[in-house]
Amino acid sequence: VGFISMFIIGGVTGIMHASPPADLIQHDTYFIVAHIHYVLIGGSIMALLAGVHYWFPKMSGRMMNETLGQWQFWTFFIFFNVTFMPMHWTGLLGMPRRVYTYGPDLGVTELNQLSTIGALGLGISVLLFVINLFASLRYGEIAPDDPWDGATLEWSIPSPPPIFNFARIPTVHSRDGWWAMKHPERMHLDPIEVTPLAGGPGHATERAHEVIATAGPDATPPVIHMPSPSYWPLLSALGLAMMASGLLMADAFGPITIPIFAILGVLLLVGSIYGWSFEAP
Fold first, then answer.
1. Which own/partner contact pairs does 206-211 have at CB distance under 8 Å and 24+ positions apart?
2. What is residue 204's three-state secondary structure?
3. Does 117 have pLDDT greater than 90?
4. CB–CB of 75/128 below 8 Å?
5. Confidence check: pLDDT of 148 > 70
6. pLDDT in tens, 158-204
7. Which of 170, 273, 281, 270 is nearest to 225 (CA)?
8. 220 pLDDT higher than 80
9. Which of these, 117, 108, 198, 126, lies nearest to 162 by C-alpha position?
10. Which of 61, 72, 117, 261 is deepest in the core (most CB within 10 A)?
11. For residue 200, what pLDDT is reported?
12. Cα separation of 5 and 30, whole Å?
């Protein structure tokens, strides 16, 4: 609801700019600010919040509070429109963007005050989301493995996922593999034998970096080797960043930055890759 409706409004107000007379009036005004926020917040932040609520049970093993989630959605939806919808009119009335002062004769004081109220409400909505997130991590209801009757394979394993993800490589029969395993009749497939892809969280063996995965009540649990924790990938990334920074900052800080940052970055990168290559499995 939030993503589609807000993104449509942002898209329609963007199409207007294809008309030169309209673009001449709206360009570099608060109309553009309103348009871009409907596209970016409506098209990305709304989807991001929906994704967090959807995958939170799989990531954390707990359900987010539904009541707080509904309050957060509706306050965000309402106050978002209260904040940015008036900006269409402030822009058409001639208020330029990137300007925080304006004369009283412009006639946009009340509209800007309304946007300020909406922005405060948006802050409250985001605070509700943060409270819901951290409270659910600690006190949330224990999530089942597949709370949404999902279609994709991540919902076939426990919540949160075991360290090895899948005890065995899944056999996929369609694009929505888990849905096909659960409901083959709806996918027009022959009946598929459904067995848990990972029936438990696994437990450590006496050998380092190995876990036993339970794949079913009668199945022989496979021993899965897990890679050891390592700092070498992080150091390799740091070396690559230092090398790139030395090359990019040469014009800003002078050519001396090239040998300092780039050479140190190359040494760190090569040394990290070397150490990573000979690391014990």
1. 209/281, 211/162, 211/163, 211/164
2. strand
3. yes
4. yes
5. yes
6. 888 888 888 777 777 777 888 887 877 766 555 544 444 554 444 44
7. 281
8. no
9. 198
10. 72
11. 46
12. 20
Q: With left for phi above 0 and alpha for psi between -120 and 50, is residue 140 left, alpha or beta?
A: beta
Q: Which two tokens stand for residue 5?
A: 């409706």
On the question of pLDDT at 126 being above 90, the answer is yes
If one compares 225 and 4, the residue with the highest pLDDT of the two is 4
Q: Give CA–CA dist 95/102, Å, rounded.
A: 7
Share of the chain above pLDDT 90, in %: 36
Q: Which residue has the tokens 């819901």?
A: 132
φ/ψ (deg, to 5) at 191: -55, 135
pLDDT of 209 > 70? The answer is no
3-state class of 29 per DSSP?
strand
Start-end of H helices in the chain: 2-15, 20-26, 30-40, 46-60, 66-92, 109-139, 177-182, 232-248, 250-253, 257, 263-277
What integer pLDDT is reported at residue 82 of this predicted model? 95
**Three-class DSSP category at 62:** strand
Biggest CA–CA distance in the chain, Å, is 80
Amino acid type, 54: Y
Residue 261 CB: number of other CB atoms within 10 A?
21
Question: What residue ranges do the domains of the chain occupy?
Answer: 1-139, 153-214, 231-277
Quote the tokens at residue 163. 């360290």
- pTM of the complete model: 0.72
Supply the pLDDT for residue 171: 77
Q: Which amino acid is at 91?
A: G
What backbone torsions phi and psi does residue 163 show, to the nearest 5 degrees? -60, -25
Residue with token string 């009340």: 110
Number of residues that make up the chain: 281
Give the position of tokens 């948006």. Answer: 122
